[in-house]
Amino acid sequence: MKQGLSLRVSQHLALTPQLQQSIRLLQLSTLELNQEVEQLLDENPFLERADDELEREAHGLERADAPAAQDEAELDAASVTSDSAGGAESEVTGDIASGESWEGDGAVDMRPDDSEWGGDAPPRNGTRDEEEADATELARSHESLQDFLKRQAVGLRLGAEDRAALLYLIESLNDDGYLEDPLEELARGLAGDDPELVDGVLAHFAVALRLLQSLEPAGVGARDLAECLRLQLQALQAGAARGAPAGPAPGLLDLALRICAQPVELLARRDVKKLAQLGGGTEAMTREALALIARLEPKPGRRFVDVERNVIVPDVIVTRSGSGAQTRFRVQLNPDVMPRLRVHDIYANALKGHRQGGRDGQGHAALQQRLQEARWFIKNIQQRFDTILRVSSAIVERQKNFFMHGELAMRPLVLREIADELGLHESTISRVTTAKYMATPFGTYELKYFFGSGLGTESGGNASSTAVRALIKQFVAAEDTKKPLSDNQLSDMLKEQGIECARRTVAKYREALKIAPANLRKAL
Q1: Is the bond preceding residue 263 a cis peptide, omega within 30 degrees?
Q2: What domains can be seen in the chain, in order of their start residue?
């Protein structure tokens, strides 16, 4: 084996900790960013919220805002885009070649960014009138299905064992109000392998199930869809027996119950002739019964589902002013999602004085590193929101027709167009547009919603896939329900509009819009 020396030149991308943090913060959603901020506030003593004034005033110290220092200019460096040798895409923010680390530059003097950032944003947890409740607070106060059923169970006169069995079944319901697990499995989960105990628990469960299925909402506690529909029809029958006004005719309810006893596939296909034969009614009566069944609730627990997880707080707000040729759109960040952070000037000044004393150099270096981490975190958050605002402004500029006329006027747009315009990498645009939302005059949309491929037109131009989906939805909304439009007919109608769209593409867009096929949209 021969040994030798050789010289080789190579390039590699080294991401400093602050650059890695910048990339990570950019792809976080608003909720994830808030969690990150809370975690760092707990871990780093040099970081505090900008609205924490009382503690600072108690020390009698004024804010130490100094003019911008020249050596802080590197923190405002523009985004740098770089591809690794293996073809992987990586967009980083800051100066890659600087080789800086969390050690910092050794400075502990107060900087402008140490005192406050985001001064225009109101405190996120500030006081407000009790009457001014937002959607999140309303969601927290929303009553769950289990709580609603337990409140009804309080009025039942039950023994201790039957009450415990009823509460156990209530807790076993899924979000839709169904009891998915068989009673035998639930009983074995409580009683183990002892047959006598299992039989005893099953007896209590059988009683509890009948009680559960008698509670509101009708259909709760069902094991499958057919039982759910049957329970609701039986509740209507009970209401009719009590003389409830404007209820369905008893004969229609009886026929609907017989239809629900048939295979669910026949109901899904709306096979009127077959159901009429099996149910023993005329085709006209069967259609009325199917219409009655269609008005029932297939998911009794739907209205009790916790709505908090569906609350979307936009990152960007777009407002419109003027009209006609004078129409202008203002793009601004939502102040409610912007954390107000600053470096704790009391601790920073104390660290500066400690450095001048020259004692405990190792401890001073560790504290200095934490101070630099706080500064970098504030800068990276600011850069995150600056990038979101830049990308959102470019989207609004490209999609002006959407903001004026709605989704039918959406134009084709791909990530590279925005990336080239802003001098960023496509991966950066992808991170910015993921889990970030924009409030528009037409509703709140994810930033990715404004991007879509193009379909060819007869004029040689392109039509956005979003606009094509909106057009399909418009066609279906205006169709004759007795003769719904097939995918082929929708494709032909798009061609009449000058848009080349194959039947398979129409079917894909229709399914994405959650529109049923023509045979299921047909009126009875």
Answers
A1: no
A2: 145-304 (no CATH), 405-438+446-521 (1.10.10.60)
